[in-house]
Write a structure and sequence with these properties.
The complex is a heterotrimer of chains A (341), B (291) and C (501).
Chain A: H1 2-18, H2 33-59, E1 62-67, E2 70-76, H3 80-87, H4 94-124, H5 133-141, H6 148-158, H7 166-173, H8 187-215, H9 219-227, H10 232-243, H11 245-260, H12 264-269, H13 283-289, H14 296-322, H15 324-340
Antiparallel strand pairs in A: 1-2
Helix pairs in contact in A: 1-9, 1-15, 2-14, 4-8, 4-11, 5-8, 9-10, 11-14, 13-14
Chain B: H1 2-45, H2 49-55, H3 65-74, H4 80-111, H5 117-127, H6 132-145, H7 153-156, H8 163-176, H9 179-187, H10 192-203, H11 205-220, H12 224-229, H13 238-246, H14 255-288
Chain C: H1 26-34, E1 70-75, H2 79-87, E2 91-93, E3 99-101, E4 104-110, H3 119-126, E5 138-144, H4 145-152, E6 157-158, H5 160-163, H6 175-180, E7 190-192, E8 198-203, H7 204-211, H8 216-222, H9 226-238, E9 244-246, H10 251-255, H11 273-288, E10 291-294, H12 299-304, E11 313-317, H13 318-329, H14 343-349, E12 358-361, E13 372-377, H15 383-395, H16 397-405, H17 416-423, H18 437-447, H19 457-473, H20 478-492
Parallel strand pairs in C: 1-4, 1-5, 9-10
Antiparallel strand pairs in C: 2-3, 3-4, 5-13, 6-13, 7-13, 8-11, 8-12
The chains are: A mainly alpha (341), B mainly alpha (291), C alpha+beta (501).
């Protein structure tokens, strides 16, 4: 009962502070300052990004590329660049690229989320009271500091296709295989390596985000549940998880958007080819391929498709953030209430 | 009664210790995995090209550290110090632009109820998801027509519009910048902009430090944009120089040199990271609570 | 006006011995005064060097200016730079990546090849030449054979005759190096100091053990054509060895001997019979275990060349033998600072790993691998200096010979007379067990036929090998691999199409 009550309070409190800042607290005469403060951002964006973005969209309707040093086009061709991607008439069918990208992202993200949740829980759990956490926290973030290309080089030598390369050597010596394995010749091991690298590079970041969310969980709720005899497992799944839902969704969305932009790891690891059979080629890698012929048309079209996919997820972000207290804590509170009473 | 309680506590204690042990083991293993890559990199700095190519991995240092270092530090075509300087200029400039102006923008959206505020906020959320590569061709063409190729300006100034940094700042302000502070400052008769600089910015320090690390790292490691814009040796940044080492010709390519130059280029970012890492642990907490 | 059609003005054919631009003769002085204008300056002695004539595209003649104070050279690594440093008589290294020749500052722009990192900025710069200051204009840029056609058949490169290189100057160059650099009008647009004929390098110890002889002539009999090559491969396999290290090892021997270019006049991609033969053979070799499934330049490939390698041989050209193969063959590395070719170096290497255990033979087909060409940019303002660099570093027989014989350099140079001389000398390679491999190069270099190159070679060859790797690995079937090839190559060259069935 106590849990439920405080929970509702919390939800209300959150709702209040997260909602629109009430107008009465502000003086109208200051409002124009708002424009002053946001002006640099919007001016810079308009100049450096918006204009190129518009030209990108514009170009996507043209045939416009180079053969060697000779220019072809620009000739208006309507939606042909787009149609080519969907039919695969020119270039890799866009569905393959999207599915490659999403699969590799999921392969890295799911373990990343699991490990990050666990670590964040360990770091923030008062009862566990782990020592040296700041050292752990500092270290798990470190892989993010390495250039993706440098990291790829290392992974490449670890998984190299020779008997002497570490992984092959290990597998051969324990008898797991009788012949060296070319890890980049199998789509699942190739994707696995890429997913693993993304995992290593980003799990520290996710852990820190989730840790922040967990520290925000009202300690009294956990204590109350503990006194009521809940096991740590129950506390984690029934109290912590629902309360950090907003951050979880945030992590989910930002990671997905980052995942859709996946580029340098597979690019360097597979020399831009997306071995084997194009199964590790991502959307941006294909965009990069089109720079070869300075193909503004195709590059524009793939950009627009990417933009639409990303914008769709932005809408989810938008939906989520405008509705976060209702969706998160309140539903939890309602559930809890039912249970508590 | 007391006895039963003891049993329960003992059992609880056992499980607590058990979980603690599992946690320490898990964390230690992951940390070893993370450090493993750095270790291999350092070891490879001390090995020659043929050693690395032939034997793949080694756990003990070899003898080529000094020759690798000398080769990397003295190559006149790839002036590493110059590259380091350029990278520092670009990264510091980028950090300043993105952190300062994003804080400003977030502050504008946070405090003032101007017309179009909601639109501005939603717009930034939307553009947060557009990858750099999408606008790259148009951006490079534009820079060429402005004569800004081989300049560091296009690598720095566009960072003023950094949607993710803005977003983080906004979240941070929502949770820890009560409007009262602003109002208090106003009573003192301070100009709004000065209020922001002298009173608000110090409050935002933890959040700014966190974003400074994120921005610094990504700017420091950025190869894509500089590679499209810069051809002159004296303007090149470190990631391009790392690539130049990787593209040496058959007679002078050396994996030892490559690992050395990678290691050298990671050092500054490590230093920045360790200087600011306490904020990562403390700072994100406040900012992201409300997610 | 982009099309600066040129005819040679400089009477520099007469000043072969002149080094540097400061002491040029009247010919180049006329160039000075003519400057950038394209009026009547086709003065006097110009066309004595004009061989096939640089003025094919238009009627009027243009002077190549010669008043530049900065010489800009674009390349993708420091190989050419070190040749200039070591062998161009008047080059003074400033120690900061620039140099001086006379009073002209030499600036190097080095952009790595990777991910098109060289060509994209080079193209942009070439097309922007008219908008930049004279001191920033490119004077010389370097190209490779795989994409030479793109620049050779463009208006951005000058016929070498325009700066004063004569037919006589290039007479001793190997024909194929000229074929690659000649445009559709028959003008030679680029010159190279290297010729890179390839041979088949094999391990003597394995030959002795399996074939009963390590004599190059005898071994050649076992690999004289592809049928014999395959038989020998079977023998190697039976004795526990691999014939080749990987899939792409033999690719060039096939792709250099095609019967038609990659693309026909209808812009259709045509896969040559000989390339298909490579696919067939490589698949066959892979399935039968004749190769070790390594990629070119991979760690495994390098290890296969070492003392413990189980691979019989490698297709290698000139440079690859003296550097890559040699480096890979050693058991203990050469200590830092020990100069290649020195006495202590020889002492260190002798008996070290597979040093001395390699030999070369002709192999089943002639081919070449590598090479760098120099182009004069259409906007150069250092005509005589460009000419002299081209002359000294690609035509001068004495310098060519010294490049070949200098330990640690040992490029096989693009000068038939000089190479014949070395071939007939007592030159021998300790690394190859005392063999004079130059003699073999001389033979093979003459037979190389590169008349079927096209501007699509680089993209097509790379994409084809990458696509077929999946097929050899067994990841995809043949048709899928072909389909992938077409898809990816059309992404690179959108104008091309897959031929109708």
């Amino acid at each position: 009962m106590r849990v439920a009550a405080s929970d509702v309070e919390l939800a209300e409190k959150k709702h209040e502070s997260d909602g629109e800042i009430p107008v009465k607290r502000k003086s109208i005469s200051y409002a124009k300052w708002g424009y002053f403060f946001i002006a640099p951002f919007f001016i810079a964006y308009a100049i450096f990004s918006l204009w190129p973005l518009i030209t990108t969209v514009y170009n996507s309707f043209f045939e416009n590329y180079r053969i060697g040093l000779d220019q072809v086009g620009p000739n208006f061709i309507g939606f042909e660049n787009y149609i080519n991607f969907f039919t695969g008439a020119k270039g890799v069918p866009v569905w393959n690229l999207i599915s490659n990208t999403v699969i590799m992202w999921l392969m890295g993200f799911i373990p990343q989320l699991a490990v990050s949740l666990l670590f964040a829980y360990w770091f923030t759990n008062k009862r566990m009271d782990l020592k040296c956490t700041s050292i752990f926290k500092s270290i798990i973030y470190m892989p993010n500091l390495i250039m993706a290309s440098a990291f790829s080089l290392l992974m490449f030598s670890l998984f190299a296709n020779t008997e002497t390369a570490p992984i092959n050597n290990m597998l051969l010596s324990i008898g797991a295989t009788t012949e060296k394995i070319d890890f980049l010749a199998n789509q699942w091991s190739a994707r696995g390596i890429i997913a693993f690298m993304n995992f290593i590079m980003w799990f520290g970041n996710t852990t820190i985000m989730l840790m922040a969310a967990m520290l925000g969980v009202d300690e009294s709720l956990v204590e109350a549940a503990d006194i009521d005899g809940c096991t740590p497992n129950q506390i984690f799944w029934k109290i912590t998880m629902p309360l950090i839902r907003p951050i979880l969704v945030y992590v989910f969305i930002t990671s997905l958007v980052g995942g859709l932009q996946m580029f340098d790891v597979p690019q360097v690891l597979t020399s831009g080819i997306g071995v084997p059979n194009g199964t590790t080629k991502t959307l941006i890698m294909f965009l990069n391929d089109n720079l070869y012929s300075k193909n503004y048309g195709a590059a524009g079209a793939i950009s627009v498709i990417l933009f639409i996919v990303c914008a769709a997820f932005s809408l989810i972000v938008y939906y989520f953030f405008t509705d976060r207290t209702l969706g998160g804590a309140k539903s939890f509170a309602a559930k809890k209430k039912k249970k508590g009473v | 009664m007391a006895g039963k309680y003891d049993v329960v506590t003992n059992e609880r204690k056992f499980w607590l210790n058990f979980r603690r042990t599992v946690a320490y083991i898990g964390l230690t293993l992951m940390c070893i995995l993370c450090l493993f890559f750095f270790y291999i990199m350092l070891i490879n700095c001390t090995r020659s090209h043929n050693e690395i190519q032939r034997a793949g991995l080694a756990f003990l240092p070899s003898t080529s550290f000094i020759s690798n270092f000398t080769a990397v530090a003295t190559d006149a075509n790839i002036p590493l110090m110059k590259g380091m300087l350029n990278s520092i200029i670009v990264s510091v400039g980028t950090v300043f632009c993105s952190v300062y102006f994003s804080a400003m923008t977030a502050y504008g959206c946070h405090v003032y109820d101007f017309k179009g505020r909601k639109f501005a906020f939603n717009f930034i959320l939307l553009i947060m998801t557009i990858p750099t590569q999408v606008t790259a061709l148009g951006f490079v063409d534009m820079m060429r027509s402005w004569g800004l190729l081989n300049s560091l300006i296009p690598l720095i100034v566009p960072a003023i519009a950094a949607p993710t940094v803005f977003f983080f700042m906004k979240q941070y302000m929502d949770s820890s910048l009560p409007i009262d502070i602003v109002e208090a400052a106003r009573i003192d008769g301070a100009n709004e902009y000065r209020t922001f600089n002298s009173i608000i910015l110090p409050i935002l320090k933890p959040a700014m430090a966190v974003q400074a690390i994120f921005t610094f790292v990504s700017s420091w490691n950025n190869y894509f944009t500089p590679n499209l814009l810069i051809t002159k040796t004296e303007m090149k940044t470190l990631p391009i120089m790392v690539y130049m080492w990787r593209c040496k010709d058959y007679a002078s390519i050396s994996m030892g040199h490559i690992y050395m130059v990678i290691t050298i280029s990671i050092l500054p970012v490590m230093i920045v990271y360790f200087c600011l890492s306490k904020f990562i642990i403390g700072g994100v907490t406040l900012g992201a609570v409300k997610g | 006006m982009k099309k600066r059609v040129l005819a040679a003005l400089l009477a520099s054919a007469t000043v072969l011995s002149v080094v540097g631009c400061s002491n040029n003769t009247s010919g180049s002085d006329a160039g000075n005064s003519g400057n950038t204008s394209n009026t009547d300056s086709g003065s006097t002695g110009g066309n004595d060097s004009g061989s096939t004539g640089g003025n094919t595209e238009g009627g009027d003649t243009v002077t190549v200016p010669d008043d530049g104070k900065v010489l800009n050279i674009w390349c993708w690594n420091d190989e050419f730079q070190s040749r200039v440093k070591d062998f161009y008589p008047d080059y003074v290294d400033n120690g900061d990546g620039t140099g001086k020749i006379g009073d002209v500052l030499v600036k190097w722009t080095i952009n790595p090849n990777k991910d098109n990192g060289y060509q994209i900025p080079l193209d942009a710069a070439l097309q922007d030449q008219e908008n930049v200051a004279a001191d920033d204009r490119i004077d010389i840029f370097l190209i490779e054979a795989d994409y030479a056609d793109k620049y050779v058949n463009s208006e951005y490169s000058l016929p070498v005759s325009a700066v004063g290189i004569t037919d006589a100057d290039t007479a001793e160059m190997y024909e194929y190096t000229k074929v690659i650099a000649t445009d559709a009008n028959g003008d030679l647009k680029a010159v190279s100091w290297q010729a890179a004929p390839g041979l088949f390098a094999y391990k003597r110890s394995i030959a002795q053990k399996v074939l009963g002889t390590d004599d190059p002539d005898a071994v050649q009999e076992y690999v004289a054509d592809w049928d014999k090559f395959e038989e020998t491969a079977q023998t190697m396999k039976d004795n526990g060895y691999f014939m080749l290290s990987g899939y792409d090892d033999a690719y060039r021997t096939f792709s250099n001997n095609v019967s038609a270019p990659w693309v026909n006049d209808k812009n259709e991609i045509i896969i040559d019979e000989n390339i298909l033969k490579w696919v067939e053979q490589t698949k066959n070799f892979t399935d039968k275990g004749f190769n070790n499934k390594n990629g070119l330049w991979s760690d495994g490939w390098a290890a296969d060349q070492g003392p413990d390698g189980k691979v019989f041989g490698f297709f290698y050209s000139t440079w690859g033998i003296n550097f890559t193969l040699l480096g890979n063959s050693l058991a203990t590395k050469v200590p830092d600072g020990m100069a290649q070719g020195s006495a202590e170096w020889l002492e260190h290497c002798t008996g070290n790993g597979a040093f001395g255990d390699y030999a070369v033979c002709y192999g089943p087909q002639t081919y070449y691998w590598g090479g760098t060409w120099l182009c004069a940019s259409y906007m150069t303002d250092n005509a005589s200096l460009v000419k002299d660099i081209m002359y000294q570093l690609t035509c001068n027989g004495e310098i060519m010979k010294s490049i070949t014989t200098t330990p640690g350099v040992e490029d096989y140079t693009n000068n038939m007379a000089a190479m014949e001389e070395v071939a007939n000398s007592d030159f021998k390679s300790d690394f190859l067990g005392g063999q004079n491999h130059i003699a073999l190069f001389v033979e093979n270099a003459k037979k190389i036929d590169m008349s079927n190159i096209s501007k699509y070679d680089q993209g097509c060859n790379e994409t084809f090998q990458a696509a077929m790797k999946d097929y050899f690995d067994g990841t995809v079937d043949y048709d899928t691999a072909l389909e992938n090839f077409y898809t990816n190559v059309i992404t690179k060259y959108p104008a091309l199409t897959k031929p109708a069935e």
